[in-house]
TrEMBL record:
It holds the Pfam family NAD_binding_1. Gene3D superfamilies: Nucleotide-binding domain of ferredoxin-NADP reductase (FNR) module, Translation factors. Residues 8-109 form the FAD-binding FR-type domain. The keyword Metal-binding applies. It comes from Acidovorax soli. Keywords: 2Fe-2S, Iron, Iron-sulfur, Metal-binding. This is Ferredoxin-NADP reductase.
Amino acid sequence: MLPNEHQGPWRNAKIERISQLTPRIKSFFLDVSALASRRAGQHIDVRLTAPDGYAAQRSYSIASAPRADNVEIIIEKLQDGEVSPFFHDIAEVGESIEVRGPLGGHFVWGPADGGPLLLIAGGSGIAPLMAMVRAWAADPAEVVAPTGAMAELPPVPMPVLLVCSARTPADLPFHAELLELEAARPDFTFIAVTTREPPPRPTDLGRRLDAAAIANVLARWVHTPRHVYVCGANRFVEAVANGLVDAGVPAAHIKTERYGGA
């Protein structure tokens, strides 16, 4: 991350809408007039300041597409967190919060970057990957020919595979939206992975996303990923990245982003 003086000024952004995504995750839609143009995968900083002057700051990835009318961030409530309880228990529509950004230039993707595109998320780590999916859905751009045993098939619009892991089906953010997109777009594949309850569909996985599960996912996809993005908690990202390399994905094709407490 760049030094503070290069991250831009703090600005006020109004909360325009709040939506309950899962039992523990809410979406907050912010007025974009305070924010510059952005790329899918970037984040913003949020700062809360108490009456005594104490300030707490967190970074949240942007889930909305770059051309969306507002900026969507998703926040999971952590009982011991400093910032997330405020958003879940106190913040209201119409309230202004301090933000700066957008920030980040490594974990970003746009249609011009090409594909095929493999996205793997753990829980609320889906946020920057949703921005990429939404950017792709608005402008799929590239056409890609299948490889390997499927090489005889005709070229298709640039394919995207999104894998999201959560404890239960109810904990899967954006689940309904992703199912609708998959039904509408044959070039988009969504696989849910649930670790504590059976998966929603037979095509989903009911297990941890270990090396064997990753190999299973890659074997089912007819495309060789050109870009891979992995986002989630530290241990999740480490395990997935290692599993991808074990499955033959070049490490140079893999970009990761990790998150901590909030």
